[in-house]
Amino acid sequence: MNAIRPLPDLLISQIAAGEVVERPASVLKELVENSLDAGARRIDVQLDEGGVRLMRVSDDGGGIAAEELPLALARHATSKIASLDDLERVGSYGFRGEALASIAAVARVTVTSRRPEAAHASRLRGGQAAPEPAALSAGTVIEVADLYWSTPARRKFLKSEATEYAHCDEVLRRMALARADVAFSLTHNGAMKRRLASTDFPGRAGEILGTDFFPHARPLNVVAGPLRLSGLAALPAYSRSGRDEQFFFVNGRFVRDKLLSHAARQAYDDILHGARHPAYVLFLELDPAGVDVNVHPAKTEVRFRDARGVHQFVFHALQRALAVPLAGAEPAPMVATTSTSSPAGSPSHWNPGRQSSFSVNEPATHAYYEFVRRPQGAVPAPGHFIPPAPTYSGSAPEEEPYLGYALGQLHGVYVLSQNNNGLILVDMHAAHERILYEKLKNALDQGPPATQNLLVPVVLNATETELATAADHTESLHRLGFDVSSAGPHELAVRSIPSLLAAGNVPELLRSLLRELAEQPASRVIESRRNELLATLACHGAVRAHRVLTLPEMNSLLRQMEATERADQCNHGRPTWTQLSMSDLDRLFLRGR
User: Fold this and answer.
1) b/e for 95-109, b at 16 or more Cβ within 10 A?
2) What is the spatial distance between Cα 593 and Cα 590, in angstroms, rounded to a whole number?
3) What CATH number did the domain enclosing 388 receive?
């Protein structure tokens, strides 16, 4: 065996570069973070060939003193921490003091910088012992040329120029979202790709995510003790096929954290089932001592000291923001205190989407329909839309409920309603599905659901799998309100079902339930997959398309929507209703032209 010996400094830096400098985007991230730590208000990025041939980052920050330039390229040299206490409470983006050294080990690096008090700028090229005078008005310019020239084997692992540029662009998008107060520009192969002026958070989010995001976004700004969560969360109508629009920042630093991702996904469980992914830009702020950012050299992983507390806070804050009802029912109070202020940097009148301005007052009774007054939140049982028949009072309409009053049905699928703003179209199955789902959840949370005994048991043919599943999960079926037993060699008899599903198709309901129970252990279905199971039951129990509803039944559906949390979306993330304003209708018919 070879003798043990210390590694050369250059080889040490090249090994470290394997973790820090994964691709050009990794280099860009480190350089932009350094510019932000230096107090830059403008950062310009120039890339050639995806950043492999040349990357040039210019900023107007505080600069580096001439005598400190050699240290800037040295390993473990930094101005950001000096002790373990500093490390445990680090508030800057960088702190390891190894990024520039690692980059210089695998590329040709030139640093030009000037402090405000300096008579001139200074330039240091990689390999030089001392800096030389240079021309620069202020700030710092770092050029990284010929990435991986000294380690050609690593260069072979890079992707195409277009792919590497796309990764660089994504890094800049994240940094721009985190710092809306800083202006950014991005040039690739001489062509301007992005020019972002200094603005507020809503303005920057609109530039990065596009105008389609805002109509579906709900703002949140929740504070609980030392924790604060702010930003924008999109409703399921804006769900994505991938995670490309999920941005989570901890104390301003973009992170990929499994705990935070899990909390966010759980918050969307009630409104986004299946393979779709939510979109959000969220900022978690907490005491720097409560989070360890010294987990990996790339600094995209963090570790929380109170992981469970952070998870629960993020989950409840986001779930509450997504669960604001249309009208008539305030969601259950959360342990946190909801701040009434706008997210940092946003104007007080910020209102990016109509969903964020829903009234939460009890809807007034319209004079045209004399409905029975009920306690707040009390609504007719889903599936039985039989309120008292309407009577015409002959008086002028009073203030209308948010979703107005029904005009009729369209092909037995959509309910048409009129409110003060114009015309509302409601997908009656999707809307009733959400109402039924929320009531099933609430009923199960309060104990075994109320059941309805069937006068005549419903007998259905069953497969061997269905027979075995029913026999193995008798207790679980009882917990969900179903009394099921064998009625013959190939038959099952249903003697009672949950009262909320009394109007549903019993064989269809039971078969869906047995399929869920057969795929997972009973304990997992009832606990971890409960909501998906209830969503399936609600879908099969909801009023079906092409069923003719009376006018009172339609209005009862609208009132229940107003009193139901998350009534904007069905259980699969589809919208349940949409509004056409009078101006929208006028445009369709060219009125006023």
Assistant:
1) bbbbbbbbbbbbbbb
2) 6
3) 3.30.1370.100
Please check whether residues 191 and 297 belong to one and the same domain.
Answer: no
Count up the domains in the chain and report the number: 3
Cβ–Cβ < 8 Å for 538, 571: yes
Give residue 140's pLDDT.
96
- 């008899």: which residue's tokens? 493
User: Cα–Cα distance between 469 and 26 in angstroms, integer?
Assistant: 52
121-125 β-sheet, strand order: 132-134, 121-125, 108-114, 139-145, 54-59, 42-48, 183-188, 191-196
CATH code of 19's domain? 3.30.565.10
Return the SS3 of 228: strand
Query: How is the beta sheet containing 414-419 ordered, strand by strand?
Result: 405-410, 414-419, 422-427, 577-581
CATH number at residue 307: 3.30.230.10
String of b and e for 366-384 (b: at least 16 CB within 10 Å)? bebbebeeeeeeebbbbbe
Place of tokens 């129990």: 541
Specify whether 258 is located in the same domain as 292: yes
Domain membership of residue 582 as a residue range:
376-593
Shared domain check, 180 and 244 = no
Task: Please say whether the beta carbons of 52 and 147 come within 8 A.
Answer: yes
CA angle 460, 466, 472 (to 5 degrees): 120
Question: In the predicted model, is pLDDT for residue 144 greater than 80?
Answer: yes
Query: Which of the residue ranges 32-36, 38-42, 326-330, 568-572 would you say has the lowest mean pLDDT?
Result: 326-330
Q: What is the percent of the chain with per-residue pLDDT over 90, rounded to a whole number?
A: 37
Convert the pLDDT of each residue in 260-277 to its tens digit.
Answer: 999 999 888 777 766 788
> What is the pTM for the complete model shown?
0.66
According to the model, what pLDDT value does residue 282 have? Answer: 96
Once rounded to an integer, what is the mean pLDDT over residues 243-250? 92
**Amino acid (1-letter code) at residue 105:** A
Residue 203 pLDDT: 92
Query: Percentage of the chain with pLDDT > 70?
Result: 77
Say yes or no: 81 and 62 in one domain: yes
- 416 in the same domain as 342: no
In the listed set 163, 198, 233, which residue is the last one of a domain according to the structure? 198
d(CA 192, CA 45): 10
CA 371 to chain CA centroid, nearest Å: 39
